[in-house]
Amino acid sequence: MKKIFSFLLLICFVGINAVQAQDKKEDAESLSIQLQIRPRAEIRNGVFTPILDGQKAASFISQRSRISLVYSKNQHLKIGFSSQMINTWGNDPQVQPTANHLSVNEAWAQLYFNPEWSVKLGRQILSYDDERILGALDWNNSGRKHDAALIDFEKAKFKLNVGLAFNQNAEKITNTFFDNSFSQPYKSMQFVWMKYQINDAISFSAIGLNLRVQNKIDSTIANLFTGGGNLFIHKNKWNVQGTYYFQLGNKPILNSSDIKTKAWMVAIKAGYQLDKKWTATIGSDYLSGRDMDATSTTITSFDPLYSTGHKFYGSMDYFYVSSPHRNVGLWDSYVGINYKATNKLESQFTLHHFEAAGKVVNFANQPVGKQLGNEVDFSFNYSIMNDVKLSGGYSQMFANSSMKNVKNITNNQTMKSVQNWFWLSFNINPTILFKLK
What we know:
Elements: H1 2-21, E1 29-45, E2 58-73, E3 77-88, E4 102-112, E5 117-124, E6 146-155, E7 158-166, E8 188-197, E9 202-214, E10 221-235, E11 238-250, E12 260-273, E13 278-287, E14 330-340, E15 345-355, E16 360-361, E17 367-368, E18 371-385, E19 388-399, H2 402-406, E20 419-428, E21 431-435
């Protein structure tokens, strides 16, 4: 940590002198205020995991209420602050004795040393590429944020980010043990991300991310490294993306920090614009898994870490988001169609086929099929007016019998014949800009 602090102090010292060396002129100031009210109604009849016979569907309306402010001073300084309240309609009494749902979503300052270099300090959203490893998780009402320092460099066709984070539960006098049970999920994080635009049609990105996690039993530190990148091709009517990531190192589970990790994932996606209104998509994602009867302690199941998981692997979130599936990995193959009826109305239809990457066994430890099921997802977006959007969707899962095994559903429990989900949401999100000078 001493090296990290020294590096940050050096960057800030050089940057401050660079800012002071610029021509002194009257600073132009602005303040941007963004308001968001986002209620969302849901009927859940088998979301995250299959609903069983005898269980009733859940229905509710949740809401995100957020206010975000960004102060900017002549491209030398930016300060961002965002506060939000997350609630379910009806969960608070009419006369509320305490206000305990308000939280700080973002609180950061960004200092620009020159047009190419800047440093951003504080609570912030980290979102890169298609959000497979680091994502904003905007579908979730709470979203995802990190307390970190971010060094940013951008020149011509090249972008570079270096991120550093060190977490603690509270101000302490002795000891630096960090319990991640109700805090950030890592003690410290370091990553380097870069992207290069080769030409108008081709670009690629790469990331190397190291997590340091402290074991709750013996306080030892485990390092988990994730590396890889993306290739983007956008030419004529084609839009193609290839992705590969690998994970190595240790992971502090089973009361041990010495368990080795060796996992990987690969994905390819191709979209073709049929005409001005129709676009077809086909793709496949493979995330390595672990056989359910494996005896080795090596972790071979890939962990997507802090991705925006709702964007991948089906909208009903059976995999990686909120419901584990016995670490068997996943092979998700899909086809989709996007229809842009007007500038205001757009809809999507996607069919997913799910298989386990590792061996699936039943409760008698006998091998069963790897096919887990198929999911149909439909969604639409309609712009009612500027800053007001109506969105909705319907999804249905056709689960195979092997789904019971990866979801720990016992033999005497029966999945409902229909597993589906319906949602409808308004997103009211205006921005107000004040020119202060």
